[in-house]
Design brief:
alpha+beta, 6 strands, 41% helix
Length: 150
């Protein structure tokens, strides 16, 4: 059996197939090199802000709770979350609710638990100027509120 030379159209086809293979492998390597979705450490002052919102009985806090869909709670019912399963669910819910949904990019989020029924989730890389996009979810990670906050 004798090998036939490849013509110009055959070389172009091989180039396209090879280039697609390189692009696909590069995309897989990039995703594989990123850490899995999870939580980033959160500043205690950020947790403190939510402790004030949910526990203060003044009118400004009541308006904030109403706007955010948060219940009146004691300060000690607000805490930072570091549980990997909860963080992964929060990261997925956050990505699913972006203007352009993205649940394939691994995402590191901060998560604050507000009592047994609410989570505040933010991705420090999703910003508008100095403001981060935060979302409030219920315990099943259904979106209740989404806005840019400081």
């Amino acid at each position: 059996m004798r090998a036939e030379p490849i013509g110009p159209s055959g070389r172009l086809w091989l180039f396209v197939v090879a280039a697609m293979g390189i692009i696909c492998v590069s995309a897989v390597d990039t995703k594989a090199g990123q850490p899995p979705s999870g939580c980033v450490a959160i500043d205690s002052g950020y947790v403190g802000n939510f402790q004030l919102i949910v526990s203060d009985t003044d009118s400004a806090s009541a308006v904030d709770r109403s706007r955010l869909g948060l219940p009146l709670l004691s300060k000690d019912s607000v805490s930072a979350v570091s549980d990997s399963a909860t963080c992964a669910r929060a990261a997925d819910a956050y990505g699913r609710n972006l203007d352009i949904p993205d649940t394939t990019t691994p995402r590191q989020v901060f998560v604050v638990r507000l009592g047994p029924t609410r989570y505040v989730v933010g991705d420090p890389t999703v910003r508008s100027g100095e403001f981060a996009l935060v979302m409030v979810f219920d315990s099943s990670f259904t979106t209740l509120f989404s806005s840019f906050a400081n």
